[in-house]
Protein backbone atom coordinates (compact mmCIF):
# COMPACT_ATOMS: atom_id res chain seq x y z
CA UNK A 1 0.00 0.00 0.00
CA UNK A 2 1.28 3.42 -0.92
CA UNK A 3 2.09 5.59 2.08
CA UNK A 4 0.82 8.60 0.14
CA UNK A 5 -2.46 7.86 1.95
CA UNK A 6 -2.56 9.35 5.45
CA UNK A 7 -4.61 7.17 7.81
CA UNK A 8 -6.20 8.34 11.07
CA UNK A 9 -8.39 6.11 13.23
CA UNK A 10 -10.80 8.26 15.21
CA UNK A 11 -11.23 5.79 18.10
CA UNK A 12 -9.53 2.70 19.52
CA UNK A 13 -9.48 1.26 23.01
CA UNK A 14 -7.14 -1.70 23.02
CA UNK A 15 -5.04 -3.55 25.56
CA UNK A 16 -2.05 -1.55 24.41
CA UNK A 17 1.14 -3.46 23.69
CA UNK A 18 4.13 -3.32 21.40
CA UNK A 19 2.44 -5.88 19.16
CA UNK A 20 -0.59 -3.63 18.69
CA UNK A 21 1.60 -0.60 17.95
CA UNK A 22 3.48 -2.68 15.38
CA UNK A 23 0.18 -3.71 13.80
CA UNK A 24 -0.79 -0.04 13.48
CA UNK A 25 2.42 0.75 11.64
CA UNK A 26 2.12 -2.36 9.46
CA UNK A 27 -1.40 -1.26 8.45
CA UNK A 28 -0.15 2.20 7.50
CA UNK A 29 -1.92 3.97 10.37
CA UNK A 30 -0.44 7.41 11.07
CA UNK A 31 -2.49 8.45 14.10
CA UNK A 32 -5.05 7.01 16.51
CA UNK A 33 -7.47 8.62 18.94
CA UNK A 34 -6.90 6.38 21.97
CA UNK A 35 -9.47 6.25 24.75
CA UNK A 36 -7.77 7.31 27.97
CA UNK A 37 -10.65 6.74 30.40
CA UNK A 38 -14.28 5.66 30.69
CA UNK A 39 -15.39 6.34 34.29
CA UNK A 40 -12.13 7.35 36.00
CA UNK A 41 -12.11 10.38 38.29
CA UNK A 42 -9.47 13.13 38.17
CA UNK A 43 -6.85 11.30 40.22
CA UNK A 44 -7.32 8.06 38.31
CA UNK A 45 -7.09 9.93 35.00
CA UNK A 46 -3.69 11.25 36.04
CA UNK A 47 -2.54 7.67 36.51
CA UNK A 48 -3.82 6.74 33.04
CA UNK A 49 -1.81 9.67 31.64
CA UNK A 50 1.22 8.38 33.52
CA UNK A 51 0.75 4.98 31.90
CA UNK A 52 0.79 6.59 28.47
CA UNK A 53 3.95 8.48 29.35
CA UNK A 54 5.56 5.14 30.13
CA UNK A 55 4.37 3.73 26.80
CA UNK A 56 5.82 6.68 24.91
CA UNK A 57 9.10 6.08 26.72
CA UNK A 58 9.18 2.32 26.21
CA UNK A 59 7.99 2.34 22.59
CA UNK A 60 9.33 5.67 21.39
CA UNK A 61 10.51 4.09 18.16
CA UNK A 62 6.89 3.25 17.27
CA UNK A 63 4.61 5.88 18.86
CA UNK A 64 4.64 9.53 19.90
CA UNK A 65 2.11 11.84 21.57
CA UNK A 66 -0.09 14.19 19.54
CA UNK A 67 -0.68 17.37 21.55
CA UNK A 68 -1.40 19.61 18.55
CA UNK A 69 -2.75 18.81 15.05
CA UNK A 70 0.64 19.32 13.39
CA UNK A 71 2.05 16.48 15.48
CA UNK A 72 0.25 13.99 13.23
CA UNK A 73 2.36 15.01 10.25
CA UNK A 74 5.46 15.08 12.46
CA UNK A 75 4.73 11.50 13.51
CA UNK A 76 4.21 10.47 9.92
CA UNK A 77 7.50 12.01 8.80
CA UNK A 78 9.24 10.21 11.65
CA UNK A 79 7.69 6.87 10.69
CA UNK A 80 5.77 6.67 13.97
CA UNK A 81 2.11 6.41 14.97
CA UNK A 82 0.79 9.56 16.61
CA UNK A 83 -1.46 8.99 19.63
CA UNK A 84 -4.03 11.61 20.62
CA UNK A 85 -5.96 11.00 23.81
CA UNK A 86 -9.66 11.28 24.55
CA UNK A 87 -12.12 10.59 27.36
CA UNK A 88 -15.35 8.68 26.76
CA UNK A 89 -16.99 10.48 29.67
CA UNK A 90 -16.69 13.76 31.57
CA UNK A 91 -15.58 12.02 34.77
CA UNK A 92 -11.96 13.32 34.51
CA UNK A 93 -13.12 16.86 35.34
CA UNK A 94 -15.50 15.75 38.13
CA UNK A 95 -17.43 18.91 39.13
CA UNK A 96 -14.52 21.32 38.65
CA UNK A 97 -14.49 23.47 35.53
CA UNK A 98 -10.81 24.32 36.04
CA UNK A 99 -9.98 20.70 35.25
CA UNK A 100 -10.93 21.26 31.59
CA UNK A 101 -7.85 23.43 30.99
CA UNK A 102 -5.69 21.26 33.23
CA UNK A 103 -6.58 18.11 31.30
CA UNK A 104 -6.11 19.83 27.94
CA UNK A 105 -2.66 20.99 29.02
CA UNK A 106 -1.82 17.38 29.93
CA UNK A 107 -2.77 16.17 26.45
CA UNK A 108 -6.48 15.32 26.59
CA UNK A 109 -7.63 16.53 23.16
CA UNK A 110 -11.18 15.11 23.12
CA UNK A 111 -13.88 14.60 25.75
CA UNK A 112 -17.35 13.10 25.52
CA UNK A 113 -19.96 14.99 27.50
CA UNK A 114 -21.59 11.68 28.47
CA UNK A 115 -21.06 7.98 28.24
CA UNK A 116 -24.39 6.07 28.12
CA UNK A 117 -25.95 7.59 31.24
CA UNK A 118 -26.94 11.05 32.41
CA UNK A 119 -23.82 12.97 33.44
CA UNK A 120 -23.23 16.30 35.13
CA UNK A 121 -23.09 17.84 31.63
CA UNK A 122 -25.68 16.15 29.42
CA UNK A 123 -27.80 13.05 28.83
CA UNK A 124 -26.58 9.68 27.58
CA UNK A 125 -28.24 7.69 24.82
CA UNK A 126 -29.67 4.96 27.11
CA UNK A 127 -31.69 7.23 29.39
CA UNK A 128 -35.48 7.20 28.96
CA UNK A 129 -35.72 11.02 29.07
CA UNK A 130 -33.22 13.35 27.43
CA UNK A 131 -32.93 16.43 29.60
CA UNK A 132 -30.43 18.15 27.32
CA UNK A 133 -27.36 20.14 28.28
CA UNK A 134 -27.19 21.09 31.97
CA UNK A 135 -26.22 24.44 33.46
CA UNK A 136 -22.76 23.05 34.20
CA UNK A 137 -22.63 21.59 30.70
CA UNK A 138 -23.11 25.01 29.13
CA UNK A 139 -20.12 26.34 31.06
CA UNK A 140 -17.97 23.32 30.18
CA UNK A 141 -18.78 23.65 26.46
CA UNK A 142 -17.65 27.27 26.58
CA UNK A 143 -14.45 26.28 28.39
CA UNK A 144 -13.74 23.37 26.03
CA UNK A 145 -14.09 25.79 23.11
CA UNK A 146 -11.66 28.19 24.78
CA UNK A 147 -8.90 25.68 25.50
CA UNK A 148 -9.25 23.65 22.30
CA UNK A 149 -10.74 20.45 23.70
CA UNK A 150 -12.96 18.74 21.13
CA UNK A 151 -16.57 18.01 22.12
CA UNK A 152 -17.53 14.41 21.35
CA UNK A 153 -21.20 13.27 21.51
CA UNK A 154 -20.76 9.62 20.49
CA UNK A 155 -22.67 8.20 23.47
CA UNK A 156 -25.06 11.11 23.99
CA UNK A 157 -28.80 11.34 23.40
CA UNK A 158 -30.38 13.30 20.57
CA UNK A 159 -31.57 16.48 22.29
CA UNK A 160 -28.29 16.79 24.20
CA UNK A 161 -26.31 16.40 20.98
CA UNK A 162 -28.35 18.98 19.09
CA UNK A 163 -28.07 21.44 22.00
CA UNK A 164 -24.30 20.90 22.20
CA UNK A 165 -24.00 21.76 18.52
CA UNK A 166 -26.11 24.88 19.03
CA UNK A 167 -24.13 26.02 22.06
CA UNK A 168 -20.64 25.26 20.79
CA UNK A 169 -18.73 27.85 18.79
CA UNK A 170 -16.44 25.10 17.52
CA UNK A 171 -17.12 21.89 15.59
CA UNK A 172 -18.74 19.01 17.49
CA UNK A 173 -17.86 15.42 16.60
CA UNK A 174 -19.20 11.89 16.85
CA UNK A 175 -15.94 9.97 16.91
CA UNK A 176 -17.41 6.47 16.65
CA UNK A 177 -20.97 5.64 15.61
CA UNK A 178 -23.02 5.01 12.48
CA UNK A 179 -26.24 6.32 10.93
CA UNK A 180 -29.36 4.88 12.56
CA UNK A 181 -30.74 4.46 9.05
CA UNK A 182 -28.05 1.81 8.45
CA UNK A 183 -28.61 -0.03 11.74
CA UNK A 184 -31.05 1.09 14.49
CA UNK A 185 -28.79 0.73 17.53
CA UNK A 186 -29.39 3.26 20.31
CA UNK A 187 -25.82 4.43 19.89
CA UNK A 188 -26.30 5.20 16.19
CA UNK A 189 -27.39 8.66 15.07
CA UNK A 190 -30.38 10.12 13.27
CA UNK A 191 -30.04 12.00 10.00
CA UNK A 192 -31.01 15.17 11.88
CA UNK A 193 -28.05 14.78 14.23
CA UNK A 194 -25.67 13.92 11.38
CA UNK A 195 -26.70 17.02 9.42
CA UNK A 196 -26.21 19.17 12.54
CA UNK A 197 -22.73 17.71 13.13
CA UNK A 198 -21.79 18.51 9.52
CA UNK A 199 -23.20 22.04 9.76
CA UNK A 200 -21.06 22.59 12.88
CA UNK A 201 -17.96 21.71 10.86
CA UNK A 202 -17.65 18.43 12.73
CA UNK A 203 -17.08 14.84 11.72
CA UNK A 204 -18.65 11.38 12.04
CA UNK A 205 -16.19 8.53 12.52
CA UNK A 206 -17.74 5.32 11.19
CA UNK A 207 -17.67 2.54 13.77
CA UNK A 208 -16.65 -1.01 12.90
CA UNK A 209 -17.91 -2.34 16.24
CA UNK A 210 -20.18 -5.22 15.14
CA UNK A 211 -23.12 -4.27 17.38
CA UNK A 212 -23.34 -0.96 15.49
CA UNK A 213 -23.52 -2.63 12.07
CA UNK A 214 -26.15 -4.30 9.93
CA UNK A 215 -25.77 -8.09 10.30
CA UNK A 216 -23.37 -7.62 13.21
CA UNK A 217 -20.08 -9.49 12.82
CA UNK A 218 -21.23 -10.66 9.39
CA UNK A 219 -21.56 -7.12 8.01
CA UNK A 220 -19.83 -7.12 4.62
CA UNK A 221 -17.22 -4.63 3.54
CA UNK A 222 -19.53 -3.79 0.62
CA UNK A 223 -22.39 -2.88 2.97
CA UNK A 224 -20.04 -0.82 5.11
CA UNK A 225 -18.80 1.12 2.07
CA UNK A 226 -22.40 1.64 0.88
CA UNK A 227 -23.10 3.19 4.29
CA UNK A 228 -20.10 5.49 3.85
CA UNK A 229 -21.30 6.53 0.39
CA UNK A 230 -24.85 7.29 1.55
CA UNK A 231 -23.56 9.29 4.52
CA UNK A 232 -21.21 11.26 2.26
CA UNK A 233 -24.29 12.33 0.30
CA UNK A 234 -26.02 13.38 3.54
CA UNK A 235 -23.17 15.10 5.39
CA UNK A 236 -20.65 15.99 2.70
CA UNK A 237 -17.38 14.17 2.06
CA UNK A 238 -15.51 16.65 4.29
CA UNK A 239 -17.41 15.53 7.40
CA UNK A 240 -16.86 11.77 7.51
CA UNK A 241 -13.96 9.63 8.66
CA UNK A 242 -13.14 6.36 10.38
CA UNK A 243 -13.53 5.68 14.12
CA UNK A 244 -13.27 1.90 14.25
CA UNK A 245 -13.87 1.41 17.99
CA UNK A 246 -11.36 -1.45 17.86
CA UNK A 247 -10.97 -3.01 21.31
CA UNK A 248 -8.20 -5.52 20.75
CA UNK A 249 -7.01 -8.09 23.28
CA UNK A 250 -9.22 -6.73 26.05
CA UNK A 251 -10.52 -9.08 28.76
CA UNK A 252 -14.21 -9.29 29.64
CA UNK A 253 -13.46 -7.33 32.82
CA UNK A 254 -12.75 -4.27 30.68
CA UNK A 255 -16.08 -4.67 28.89
CA UNK A 256 -17.75 -4.78 32.31
CA UNK A 257 -15.92 -1.58 33.34
CA UNK A 258 -17.05 0.14 30.15
CA UNK A 259 -20.68 -0.88 30.61
CA UNK A 260 -21.06 -0.86 34.41
CA UNK A 261 -18.45 1.49 35.84
CA UNK A 262 -19.25 1.84 39.52
CA UNK A 263 -22.92 2.67 39.08
CA UNK A 264 -24.41 -0.81 38.62
CA UNK A 265 -24.12 -4.16 40.39
CA UNK A 266 -25.62 -5.94 37.40
CA UNK A 267 -24.36 -6.29 33.85
CA UNK A 268 -25.61 -3.44 31.67
CA UNK A 269 -26.52 -5.04 28.35
CA UNK A 270 -27.02 -1.72 26.63
CA UNK A 271 -29.29 -2.75 23.79
CA UNK A 272 -31.18 -5.05 26.15
CA UNK A 273 -29.84 -8.36 24.89
CA UNK A 274 -27.62 -10.84 26.70
CA UNK A 275 -26.19 -11.68 23.28
CA UNK A 276 -23.77 -8.76 23.66
CA UNK A 277 -22.61 -9.70 27.16
CA UNK A 278 -19.18 -10.53 25.73
CA UNK A 279 -16.95 -9.08 23.05
CA UNK A 280 -18.38 -9.66 19.57
CA UNK A 281 -16.66 -11.74 16.94
CA UNK A 282 -14.48 -9.38 14.83
CA UNK A 283 -15.28 -8.45 11.26
CA UNK A 284 -13.48 -10.68 8.76
CA UNK A 285 -12.19 -7.65 6.87
CA UNK A 286 -11.10 -5.60 9.91
CA UNK A 287 -9.59 -7.92 12.48
CA UNK A 288 -6.96 -5.38 13.60
CA UNK A 289 -5.07 -2.34 12.35
CA UNK A 290 -3.21 -4.35 9.72
CA UNK A 291 -6.47 -4.56 7.76
CA UNK A 292 -6.85 -0.83 7.03
CA UNK A 293 -5.81 -1.44 3.39
CA UNK A 294 -9.02 -3.48 3.04
CA UNK A 295 -11.05 -0.35 3.79
CA UNK A 296 -9.19 1.63 1.14
CA UNK A 297 -9.72 -1.14 -1.41
CA UNK A 298 -13.43 -1.34 -0.53
CA UNK A 299 -13.92 2.39 -1.00
CA UNK A 300 -12.17 2.21 -4.36
CA UNK A 301 -14.46 -0.59 -5.49
CA UNK A 302 -17.45 1.46 -4.34
CA UNK A 303 -16.36 4.21 -6.73
CA UNK A 304 -14.75 6.79 -4.46
CA UNK A 305 -11.98 8.79 -6.11
CA UNK A 306 -8.55 9.01 -4.51
CA UNK A 307 -9.08 12.50 -3.11
CA UNK A 308 -12.31 11.43 -1.40
CA UNK A 309 -10.71 8.27 -0.02
CA UNK A 310 -7.83 10.31 1.36
CA UNK A 311 -10.35 12.56 3.12
CA UNK A 312 -12.27 9.66 4.68
CA UNK A 313 -9.16 7.75 5.73
CA UNK A 314 -7.45 10.61 7.52
CA UNK A 315 -7.35 14.10 6.04
CA UNK A 316 -10.75 15.04 7.45
CA UNK A 317 -9.60 14.12 10.97
CA UNK A 318 -6.51 16.31 10.66
CA UNK A 319 -8.56 19.25 9.40
CA UNK A 320 -11.09 18.74 12.21
CA UNK A 321 -8.36 18.91 14.83
CA UNK A 322 -7.02 22.06 13.19
CA UNK A 323 -10.48 23.64 13.55
CA UNK A 324 -11.34 22.39 17.01
CA UNK A 325 -8.25 21.35 18.98
CA UNK A 326 -6.14 24.50 18.89
CA UNK A 327 -6.60 26.78 21.95
CA UNK A 328 -8.27 30.11 21.20
CA UNK A 329 -5.69 32.63 20.08
CA UNK A 330 -2.95 30.03 19.71
CA UNK A 331 -1.24 28.68 16.64
CA UNK A 332 -0.48 25.03 16.11
CA UNK A 333 2.65 24.82 18.23
CA UNK A 334 3.82 21.36 19.29
CA UNK A 335 4.25 20.84 22.99
From TrEMBL:
SUPFAM superfamilies from the xrefs? Metallo-dependent hydrolases (SSF51556)
**Organism expressing this protein natively:** Halomonas beimenensis
Molecular function per GO: metallodipeptidase activity
For this entry, the protein name equals: Microsomal dipeptidase
Q: Which Pfam families match?
A: Peptidase_M19
Q: Which InterPro entries match?
A: Metal_Hydrolase, Pept_M19
GO biological process terms, alphabetically, are: proteolysis
Q: Which PANTHER family match?
A: DIPEPTIDASE, MICROSOMAL DIPEPTIDASE
Amino acid sequence: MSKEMLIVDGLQYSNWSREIFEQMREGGVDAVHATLVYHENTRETLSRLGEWNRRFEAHGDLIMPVRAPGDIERARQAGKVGIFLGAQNCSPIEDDIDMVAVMRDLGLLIMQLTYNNQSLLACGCYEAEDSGITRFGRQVIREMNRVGMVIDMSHSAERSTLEAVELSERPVIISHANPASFHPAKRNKSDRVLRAIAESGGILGFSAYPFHLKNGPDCSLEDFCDMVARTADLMGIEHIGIGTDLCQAQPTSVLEWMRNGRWSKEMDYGEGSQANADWPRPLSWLRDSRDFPNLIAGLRRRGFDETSIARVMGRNWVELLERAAVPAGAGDVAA
